[in-house]
Amino acid sequence: MKNGSPSLNALDPDTFAGESRAVIDFLAGYYRDVDKYPVQSEAEPGSLRRLLPDTAPEHGEPVDGILEDVGQHILPGLTHFQSPNFFAYYPANASTAGFAGEMLCAGLNVAPFTWAASPLATELECVMLDWMCKLMCLPDRFLFSGGGGGGGGGVLHGSTCEAVICTLAAARDRALSKLTHEGILKLVVYASDQSHTTFQKGARIVGIPPSNFRIIPTSASSSYGLTAESVRHAVEADLASGLVPLYLCATVGTTGVGAVDPVGELGEVARRYGMWLHVDAAYAGSALICPEFQGYIHGAELADSVSMNPHKWFLTNMDCCCLWVASPAQLTSALSITSEYLTDVSCQETVDVVDYKDWQIALGRRFRAIKLWVVLRRYGAAGLRAHIRRHVEMAKWFEQAVKADERFEVVAPRRFSLVCFRLRPRPRYEGDHAVDALNRKLLNAVNASGRAFMVHTVVDNKFVIRLAIGATMTQMRHVRNAFHLIQEKATQILPP
């Protein structure tokens, strides 16, 4: 006691064990019953604020009461990403091993921003990036030199957006070192109309004028992949205007339709014009551990950086993004910081160590490597390949089921475990707006049922429904049920 206040023993090992078990039991019950909740949240804005007090509690409360409130007030208002009937966006995989790794990450609670801050946390991260690089059959130039590579390396970020900003900063500084004053106003970034909008956000953050971001159209003729010819035309037009090509994004598995850009061909264009080539494989990168998908990454030896998200389809709980760079020095020169208190006086100058503070935006960071390590060790490459292939086979079935129903059409070729479809135009509804309205109505009806959750995209000015298979607990019966639900709602909304 001090000044009449009780002491707070916030990390008592016995209390830690008991309360952690309570949380695990709570989550186990949630996973058992998750398919009983409407998949998409039905919460209205402000509904939780009306239930909670206006101020924080003065005195602590038992964890059992807190968990009871989570079950009563929080769970019903969530959109349940771990539901087996979740087919929206892309998966946010959770797994027992991912949760165990997350517990170790949170429980150890180290911050390996420098080698000295936690040496083996840093080393484990280096090893994990090399393991993943080899599993995905990325070129050796992305391996750390200690892993038998050519002096590249990798880092774990929280999201693709962080990885994109870091690579854009590196590309910017590399280009500016050769340009005169106001050179940043001349730099141009290129991506397709299927590339993730995070590249536009990243370009703005690093100072590229929005008017210097080129969104290059794609079409059905290239399966919505970016073509080398279209990039060359855009680049040549910018060069004629006195602008400087800076950065080109190639995507393996675009967000909208899962399109795959020709990495090798775009790499040749990037090399010809001195651009930084980044390969974004946030979703589909997980599939590259399967030999049948590795052809999609051919040509990556011409890339400056590659990224993928194990938290999407690799059974690794949020958050975890792998970024590899061929030249770490270009990345760290753009991001390094120097403070006296971060200098390790015990480290020998001859020892080449990684200080991950210089590979990312923030100083502080989580021990994500231990989570990825647990997942890889617990399931192994064979188990993870089976996980990927199971979802792909489900998507193949769904694609064929859609094609067999004459009311629907598949809009883009199925890639990986994503199927994009819509109701076909009908004689009474030939106009695009009328067809789009019917498909909106269909999607809203499916989601309002609570029995499944999907989202849409727009391709060639058409409203398209996406079914992305990848939730950890999704089985074939859930995919069949989703298709039957779609058929049921289509029957209800279509006129006779």
Give me the side-by-side strand order of the main sheet: 1-7-6-5-4-2-3
Low-pLDDT sequence parts:
none
> Radius of gyration from the CA trace?
25 Å
* 3D shape: globular
**CATH topology label of the domain at 110-339 and 351-366:** Aspartate Aminotransferase, domain 2
Specify the CATH class of the domain at 110-339 and 351-366. Answer: Alpha Beta
Main beta sheet, described?
7 strands, mixed
Overall strand count: 11
CATH architectural type of the domain at 110-339 and 351-366: 3-Layer(aba) Sandwich
Taking all residues together, what is the mean pLDDT? 92
CATH superfamily of the domain at 110-339 and 351-366: Type I PLP-dependent aspartate aminotransferase-like (Major domain)
Kindly report the oligomeric state of this protein.
single chain
The helix/strand order is HHHHHEHEHEHEHEEHEHHEEHEEH
- Work out the helicity level: 40-55%
Please tally the helical runs, counting DSSP H or I stretches of 4 or more residues: 14
Structural class: alpha/beta
3D structure, described in words:
- One of its GO terms (molecular function) is carboxy-lyase activity.
- It comes from Triticum aestivum (Wheat).
- Its cofactor is pyridoxal 5'-phosphate.
- The modification N6-(pyridoxal phosphate)lysine is found at residue 312.
- Belongs to the group II decarboxylase family.
- The protein is an alpha/beta fold.
- It has a domain at 110-339 and 351-366: Aspartate Aminotransferase, domain 2.
- The chain is 41% helix and 13% strand.
- The chain has 14 helices and 11 strands.
- A 7-stranded mixed sheet has the order 1-7-6-5-4-2-3, sandwiched between helices.
- Helix 6 (160-176) crosses helix 7 (198-205) and helix 12 crosses helix 14.
- The longest helix has 37 residues, at 368-404.
- It starts with 12 loop residues before the first helix and ends with a helix.
- The model has no long low-confidence stretch (mean pLDDT 92).
